[in-house]
Design goal:
Layout: E1 3-8, H1 29-35, E2 39-45, H2 49-58, E3 64-66, H3 69-75, E4 80-83, H4 87-100
Parallel strand pairs: 1-2, 1-4, 2-3
């Protein structure tokens, strides 16, 4: 069985730590999900458009991007939601993910 996945937050742990040569890889959620052959990474959300642009380029445009998680949830219905935002927003984003995905 294959699964679809999205990432909320394409900053440090969500994406860029995957380029840190001093860390054991995969060091980001993006790289870990992409390394799993059973997971199809279909989208990401981040309020920072520069992060999204770099992420989209890395994923070769195979996934869609959104500037808010609410936009993502209204367009996509993934099997897996990875919340990779800063500590201050983590609880809010986790609750939004639960509400968007009632079978979690």
């Amino acid at each position: 069985m294959n699964y679809s996945a999205v990432i909320i937050g394409t900053g440090r742990i969500g994406f860029t730590l995957g380029f840190d040569k001093k860390r054991e890889q995969p060091a980001s959620h993006t790289m870990a999900l992409m390394a799993n052959k059973r997971i199809n990474l279909i989208g990401a959300a981040d309020s920072n458009p520069e992060n999204l642009e770099k992420w989209k380029k890395y994923t070769k445009g195979k996934a869609v991007t959104f500037t808010s998680s609410q936009q993502l949830y209204s367009s996509l219905h993934p099997d897996i939601i990875t919340v990779a935002v800063n500590e201050d927003s983590h609880m809010e984003e986790c609750l939004a993910a639960i509400k968007a995905k009632p079978r979690i």
